Amino acid sequence: MLSSWIISVWILPILVTGNMESKLINDLFKAYPKYARPVRNSSDIVNVLYDFSYTEIDLDEVSNIQTLIVYEGMYWKDEFLVWNPDIYEGMDELRIDANTIWIPDMTPYNTANDVDAEHGRNTAIIGSDGNVGLIRTMKIKVRCIFHTHYFPFDSATCLVIMGSWTYSSAHMNLSLTYPEVALGDYRHTPRWKLVNATLERQAKTYPCCKDVYYSITFKNEFARISYDFVLALLVPSYILSVLTILLFMLPNYGSEKITFAILLFCAFFVILLYTNSVLPAADTTPYFVIFLIFNLIMLSLLTIINALVVNLSNCESCQEVPKFLRSIVIDGIAKRFCMTSIVNRNKSRHLMSSDHESDSQMRNFYKFSVSSDKQPLNLPTAEQSYDKPLNAEPGLESNVAFITAFTSYYWQNVKDGEAEKRFRQGWSDIGQVINRFLCVLYIPVVLIAVGVNLIQISSK
Asked: In this structure, what is the dihedral angle of CA atoms 364, 365, 366, 370, given to the nearest 10 degrees?
């Protein structure tokens, strides 16, 4: 008898409490208008407070998408969910599935999802005075704008615009719960750092409707954590740039310079391919990509020029450097770069060429004067010499003509060899001047790029 009385004392309050909660739910939702705004008078406006609390943000650079996992908070008053706690054993709160009551149709305007935002737990807390609070997790995807000029020290700006899809200001007033975004539960991503998070309430009208629609814009600004890219991209690129500067110092007449330039070209091209694979999609070209392309162009020009110099410096029948090219490269660039040895050598080459023409004229005149038949003399061939008898005794005049013809023939071969050597040296000088010009153009670009990146690294 005593035991049954003790059991009834422990169980009765639980049964009563459970019955009161069930009774309260039955009474509230017996005629609850789920699809109508929770106001007694249709002209009244529902005031909704809204806020975000970030937990995790992930940026996908390739597809330009920001994925957010947040706590979404909404607070409003439902005039159909009011009760007297004294009637229900002092119950002043009720927790119920939010799908059974009216909730604001808050929607991300700039969503990148195939469907609406994904929501997690959907339980609302209702007070006896009709105040409803709904805090739930939400996963949304939105587009971002990436500023890639200074990659890998780039930044991103992402906007999340939340607002009612159907209710204008005449039906629902949307306000901010807190003036700032809550970041207490936020966990930073390994690649991007959230440097600024702001929110703003906005009012906008559309051509379709005369009423104002309220929305809340959450603006997130990120900066890339670029230490990995500094070690993987910048450091190798600048080491290769130093090797490229050393490449300009190699002699132009060897094929080793061409081989070295091709190897550097392949190395820069591999870095360019990797950079392109990790770059965010944007409408701007990063300066680092321009720097890599500049290196590829310089190495291509250097390889082409060196190949031409090697070819022209080793050809059997070389042509003289054209006058317009000599005036631009030797008289213009070489003088400005203080390459006095090449300028002086070019002047002496012109003097030797003019002397060669005068010597040719004097030699022809001499041959014309010593010949008895007034015909030019040629060096006899081997067949002609064998046809003559060995005991022939040439006269003085024929000996002088033979010596003159042999001397002219030997002199002509020497002059032709010297002319070919001058032609080769001329092309070699052209290649050396252009090599100096490219080196002077290349070094400041590398120094500027290194200086800018050092400033950015120190600012981080």
From this structure: 110
CA 406, distance to chain mean position in Å, is 71
Q: What is the radius of gyration, based on Cα positions, of the chain?
A: 45
**pLDDT tens column, 352-364:** 554 444 444 444 4
Give dist(CA 289, CA 272) in Å, integer: 7
Q: If residue 56 lies in a helix (H) or strand (E), which one and from where to where?
A: strand 46-60
SS3 327: helix
**Which residue matches tokens 């631009």?**
328
What residues contact residue 162 under an 8 Å CB cut-off, 6+ apart?
50, 52, 106, 107, 108, 109, 215, 216, 217, 218
- For residues 61 and 182, give the distance between their C-alpha atoms in angstroms, rounded to a whole number: 25
As a whole number of angstroms, the distance between CA 448 and CA 366 comes to 65
Give yes or no for a contact between 433 and 425, defined as CB atoms under 8 angstroms apart.
Answer: no
Distance between CA atoms of residues 151 and 72, nearest Å: 34
Backbone angles phi, psi at 68, to 5 degrees: -115, 140
Q: What are the tokens at 227? A: 């230490």
- Integer Cα distance of 213 and 202 in angstroms: 8
Position 118 scores a pLDDT of: 67
Q: Is the pLDDT of residue 139 over 50?
A: yes
* Spatial CA neighbour of 404 closest among 370, 355, 372: 370
Task: Name the 3-class secondary structure at 261.
Answer: helix
Give the Cβ contact number of residue 244 at 10 Å.
24
Q: Closest by alpha carbon to 213, among 179, 174, 178? A: 174
Distance (Å, rounded) from C-alpha 353 to C-alpha 166?
92
Residue position matching structure tokens 């609850």 = 32
Kindly report the pTM of this predicted structure. 0.68
Does pLDDT of 258 surpass 50? yes
Q: What is the DSSP letter of 329?
A: I
Q: What is the C-alpha to C-alpha distance for residues 449 and 233, in angstroms, rounded to an integer? A: 13
Write the DSSP symbol of residue 371. Answer: -
Q: Exposed, middle or buried, 264 (CB in 10 Å: 0-12/13-18/19+)?
A: buried
Domains belonging to the chain, first-starting first, are 32-225 (2.70.170.10), 231-459 (no CATH)
Two structure tokens written together for 380: 């006899």
Is 262 in a helix, a strand, or coil?
helix
